[in-house]
Protein 1
Amino acid sequence: MGFLHPLLLMGLAAVTVPVLIHLLLRQRPRPRPWAAMRWLLAAAQQASRRYKLTNLLLLLLRMLIVALIALAVSGPLLGGFGGGERLVIVLDRTASMGARGADPGPLAKALAVLAQADLPYRRVALVAVDTRAELIAEGDPGAMRAALVRLTAGTLPGGLDRAAREPGLAVVLNACGGVRPDVVLISDFQQDHGTALSAALAGQVRQVVRWSPAAPLTAGANATVIGSGPAPDLLPGQGGEFALLVTGHATGVSLAVDDGPAVPVPAIGLEASGFADAKGTTDATAVQTLTVSVPPLPAGTHRLRVQLTDAGLTYDNLLELPAPVRPAVPVLMVANGDLAQSGQSGDYLGAALRSDERAIALRAVRPALIAGEPLAAGGLVALRAALPAAADAKRLAIWVNDGGVLWAGLRQITDDQALVPLLSGMRADAGAAPSSGPAPGTRPGGPWNTGSTADHDLDALLGLAGAKTVPAVVVPPGAEILLRAGEAPAVLALPAGRGWVIVELADLASDAAWQARGATPLWALRMARRYTARAAALPTWTAGDPAPVSTTIKRGSDAVAVVAGDALAAAPGAWVTAEGESVVVLPSRDEGRLDRPLIAGIGNELAPLLRHSEGADLGWLLALMALVVALVEGLIAAWAGRAYGR
């Protein structure tokens, strides 16, 4: 039992008024002389007793009328018969409840409304949900309002249905306090509709209502960073660029380097991001590439923080990644004869790698000496001759899987059993050539081209030469084509562990026309630096997706326990694992989908939902009882006046 207006219970003190009136106005019998008093004495005494009982009954009825009126105006609420006793607020504070452009976001709006709301309940419990459910406040509505200032939107993806599983469900049920309360679910309802939580509470609560303080955005209005393209290859003191992968419509890009301020930077492709197609349809899931400019930086590893500007969620606009600014990349060329001495004759690759000492630090050795040569971390080995010992090949394969890059011809790898596993399932495609075309096992060629928009500047010169045929191979998943002869792959990059293997399918070393191309050295330098940078790039995990390994990741004073297969509950940014390895956590792509329609039954105003939940206010019933008692008292008083009137 509770009261809407408990202070008005002081009106119960008015029950003393009828008592005072009764004492002041009570009649005292006056002596009257009477001759036959002896016969009437017994009748008078009996009438006096009935008179006193009637007066006492009228006094009690008048006191009851005053008490019923005082109780009625205080607004009593009977818990369990319509609510009013207890309210449980389950509040979503996951990332999608945060700021949206200039809008403070659904959570801020919900807190503002709750701070001013007249909650018709005696007890209120507030439970906040992100990756777990937490009881924030429990008590009268004032205690709940005082706790609101501690709530902010988090940086973790999710929704209310996280609280439908243990131990979150136990927190919500404990907040119910052992009674059947009203429950209000507050969320943007973009990740879920709270259906699982509502089902889990069925039978435990009187009713569950939903309130959304924000309407969904239109498709494409929210821009989401979903990753970056190839790792940026930055030279000391030179400006550079890198590719940023986004969905939705971004209106600007800002870049902060290390601890410097964020400043707007040019981004190619920004104007076309997120716009509708010719039919007026906007695909919020389409991935666009923004090429972001990076200012000149000194050598070393820097931290880049890229921030999108959009009209949508702020949480998913950030990408933070380490960016190494590398001087010359260490390259070890394994070759025979003069090539090992000069690195320039007989092979385009040696000449290309020696053409720019700022970009490549080349050292050439004969195969017999490779056992004594260190294999540099983050470097490249150009294999132009067979290795003399299986131990050398095994060492090279281990180095590649640990993050090295091997550049070799197809025959140099397939002839060495220790290196064959690096081909990642690539095999000859014997059925590629038609019976009347090229020789079996080959594929028709054509002009050289990269087939890549990132290297389109090279294609005009490369296309002046070409190959009639190239070996036909089945390109395995994950492989990237670096050079084509017409449509046929001529050079592939295959992932191998944390490293890469660049495989020449065509015999480029003996192709004089290929070596004479002015773009050949630039192409070779670009590929060598690009894939050594990618081999050194940090692995990326995505918040909300299953974690790939079990570990603990740390960033500053924050530490998050990660369990393989469980949803990753970490904020976007750069983290370090317990094993000392760095990893970049990307924002949840699904968290940024804010264009999902709301289901029926979700209100956008809180007050109507609470009015429906007030339920059993007994004030009207007590007022009616007071009226009935007043009528009874009047009838008895009228009868007593006639019966005992003097």
Protein 2
Amino acid sequence: MAVNAAPYGKTPAGRLAGRWVPWSVIGLWLVLTVIMGPLSGKLSSVTTDKAADTLPAGAESTKVAVLEDSLPGGNDNTFVFVYHRDSGITDADRATVERQYDALAKRYPAKVVTPDGEDDEGPRTRPSTDGKAMMFTLDVSTTYGAPEAIVGPLRDAAKDRPTGLELDVTGPAAVDGDMEAVFDGIDLQVLLTTIVVVTLLLIITYRSPVLWLIPLVAVGAAALTAMATVYLLVKGFGIVVNDQNSALLTILVFGVGTDYALLLIARYREALHHHENVRVAMIHALRGAAPAIVASAATVIAGLLCLLVADLNSTSGLGPIGAAGILCALVAMLTLFPALLVVLGRRIFWPAVPRFSTAVEEKPGLWVRLGAAISRRRWVATLGSLGVLGVLALGLMGNTGALREQDQFVSAPESVTGFTVLRQHFPELGGQPMTIFTRPAHQERVLDVVKGVPGVAVAVPGETSGGWADISVFPKDAPDTVAEYDTIKRVRTAVHAVSGAEAIVGGPSAEHLDTEETTSRDEKLVIPLVLLVVLIVLGLLLRAIVAPLVLMATVVVSFAAAFGGSVFVFDTILGFKGIDYSVPLLAFLFLVALGVDYNIFLASRAREEAVRLGTRKGMLKALSATGGVITSAGLVLAATFGVLVSLPLVMLIEVGFLVAFGVLLDALLVRSVLVPALTLLIGRRMWWPSRLSQPVEELPVGQRSRTDDEELALQR
């Protein structure tokens, strides 16, 4: 029955629905945007991809990176020039290599490290044993710029070569430069692509020429506020923001914010049929949707903050960054977004304007028919869903090995192909150089020890400064391979045994080794913590124990299926050579925290309806009421994460595809079929130990609803 707005205005909710409230909220957001707008543009100025800022906090390679940054010339950029000719290096080629080395060394005067260990007056280039290649290593001071700024001019400076003499500029700094080139402008690219994708999906969803713009405006304001907030967090607390986390912030805010908008609009549309006053209708919509939205946001925020216990700086930094983004999205979608809808009135839904009516005809649709089918075939729906998920999970038997840095690029740049050429012609220098810092008095002893370690090709003493001496070590094996990692471990064991040397081993491959090992430890700590936190949030929301356990189990099974299916795609279809070390933890976090959202939306509505209708009818009513909006929300969230698939970096493609696939799997199968089927099978016990779980005949007469009495009569 419709509600008259006049007496309603005397209640607290009615006063909140006063005419001045929406305009005040919009005004406050305008002021906030004016303040936060300039700060949001400064976020890019505090993003960092320095090794010391993103590596594990307590790792040995991190200590080396920090020490390099503090010593004169310690953080020079190392480039390797590999010249090669298939028919063999000619005298003219040798002269060209020597001339170009002299020119580059003069242009970029810095320490030069050669595998031969020659002094400054000796030869600085090295021929290959097969006579088909020459190489030299050039260390360029950071005073000349970052790797991405240097690698281009270096390649241009060496263009003047005899016909047929090929050159690849590779080495750790070249790889870093090519990697940075991938991230150059990525924030703007992700932002614009996300806006386009969300806009198209909203237009398709609402089929309205105007309504799609309102969620976009609110989410845009949330994104601006989130970026400004993260900037302030960086300045105030020193958290780490890298390009990857900055891109994920944009995706999270737009994806989650749009989800909240879809859920609220669905409730608001329902309320408009029962309330003539749009402000009163919005109050009722918020009453129905806000608890689920807040619980959803709390789940994601709590899950993200669990990352603070991670040792990997880039992972722990994502915790407060993502949490700030979700919080800004929550506040914007529960304040600014409703205010905009109320001010614009019913006409914003044109052409399908919801009319005020005492009787709203509910037409059986897809979700009603699906619910009826699940109710008739509960076991079939349950076992069929689990069967599909189980088959997908079999993909976990595919290639889940760690992805090497050289395999991160969709299209291999020169720095990556250069490593292949280097290993082909200089097999004794197949790996990336390690850096050892030791006390000067023990340098010779450490050097002798390292030379005797299996897997070490050459060890070269370096400069002494600041109370430390450095040694460059060239392993025999290819970069980021098990064999090279084993060599690094043996070198560490050997140098640590030199009493008083205080030797520490770092370098690019050592950093990757420490990062993988730290990520593995972080997973064992963060994943159980996330599960526990999400379980607690679900328990508080649903006031039950069984339901949260069931919902959590479905999310975990869904994650395994999504991961398995994605591994099959990565390995068999896309031909990726492994899984980036950061993908499993990030994907688990996003899919558990975000995937459980849809179960929260469904289960909270089911519990609400179960109070009136009983568990079976309540779940079917919840499925029919939320089916369309949750499916739309899943499509939007999947599409926003799918934006990452368009980027030329394997790690981002893997995260984007896995999360998008997992969200769709969760929204279309787990939430639509498996959870309703399990609820119908378990029945009232789903809500144990709350009152809803008790058999009808055990309830006091005063606590029975009409539905309870009807069910009891049927039982009798």
